[in-house]
Specification:
The structure holds two protein chains of two kinds. Chain A is mostly beta strands. Chain A has no helices and eleven strands. In chain A, a hairpin with a 5-residue loop joins strand 5 and strand 6. Chain B has a six-stranded mixed beta sheet with strand order 2-10-9-4-5-6, with no helix packed on it. The chains are: A mainly beta, B mainly beta. At the A-B interface, strand 10 of A face strand 5 of B.
């Protein structure tokens, strides 16, 4: 079945970077987009950006444009989200989610990765 | 950016009840509206895409409708697993924003 499995929880200090991975299985990886969405405690879901897994093109939310990089490794069928300059407000669960290349609904989702930013 | 607003923010109901959740966009988004269910501690699950299309494997008790700025999600007969938080999301233009969520609780 289609599945996305993410890397484990991280604890980082302010100013550090974090890289979260998302390994796909059960479908042709390069036929679908990969999106990243985060959810801070008690907050709504927040879209961060996406990657065309076929050609590597990316689009980011302006909110994260200067701090996030989304990449993929097609041989490893894995996507990555790198967030720099972490601050306490970045404490959240980060999700990857599969999308179509044309219309951006999300499913299925990875299980989520908790990133805690604390001094 | 497009703002998404759901109502109500919370709702109490019983197993077997029929409930409706509303989502409003700050501008017209045609039918580019999707619905998700999120159980506590779990990832969201896609229920409805393109306003009214049922995702494969999702129960037919979920129905979506609407276009333009106003949309609804109706659950015809609540099951125990439906007591969760529901989010709408617009896929009309980036950034692809979500509503604030509607928490459905057992009465």
């Amino acid at each position: 079945q289609v599945q996305l499995v993410q890397s484990g929880a991280e604890v980082k200090k302010p100013g550090a970077s974090v890289k979260v991975s998302c390994k796909a299985s059960g479908y042709n990886f390069t036929n679908y987009a990969l999106h990243w969405v985060r959810q801070a405690p008690g907050q709504r879901l927040e879209w961060m950006g996406w990657i065309n897994t076929d050609n590597g093109n990316t689009k980011y939310s302006q909110k994260f444009q200067d701090r996030v990089t989304i990449t993929r490794d097609t041989s490893a069928i894995t996507g990555y989200m790198d967030l720099r300059g972490l601050r306490s407000e970045d404490t959240a669960v980060y999700y990857c989610a599969r999308g179509t290349m044309i219309v951006n609904w999300f499913g299925p989702w990875g299980q989520g990765t908790l990133v805690t930013v604390s001094s | 950016d497009i703002q998404m607003t759901q109502s109500p923010s919370s709702l109490s109901a019983s197993v077997g009840d029929r409930v409706t959740i509303t989502c409003r966009a700050s501008q017209s988004i045609s039918s580019y509206l999707n619905w998700y269910r999120q159980n506590p501690g779990k990832a969201p699950e896609l229920l409805i895409y393109a306003a009214s299309s049922l995702q494969n494997g999702v129960s037919s008790r979920f129905t979506g409708s609407g276009s333009g700025t106003d949309f609804t999600l109706t659950i015809s007969s609540l099951q125990p697993e439906d007591f969760a938080t529901y989010y709408c999301q617009q896929s009309y233009s980036a950034p692809y924003s979500f509503g604030q969520g509607t928490k459905l609780e057992i009465k």
